Amino acid sequence: MPASASTFEVGSELPTLKKTITQRQIDCYSGVRPKSIHTDVEWAKAKGFPAPLAQALMSTAYVSQMMVTWLGTGFIKGGKISASFIKPVIVGDTLTARAVIKSKENDGGRPRVTVECWCENQHGVKTLVGSASGFADQLRM
Known about the structure:
alpha+beta; Thiol Ester Dehydrase, Chain A; five-stranded antiparallel β-sheet; elongated
């Protein structure tokens, strides 16, 4: 359900989204290939990782899902994300997508809400940091 003005103000946290990363999800995301750090366990280990890595854009998809849940079509039709991937995500990690509202501004006559967003693993280590925004037509400026 999209946000309402009485629920979300600058400084408020959005409801989180939690996902456990499975090999099947990674395989579906990129296709299974030999000598890939994403889908070949032995290759990933040979490259110094304890297990295959999730593609970085999977984390962005989780932030997008969180924003769509919050803003609905206001994110689908006008959403933006800017993200940096700062730590690897491996099979078996549980990611939590989080966001805090940073600002509300007028964008062409429509209210745009910007959040600081990040993903963190089950150890509280941030793996993605950035910002996201979308139209919040139901919010009052």
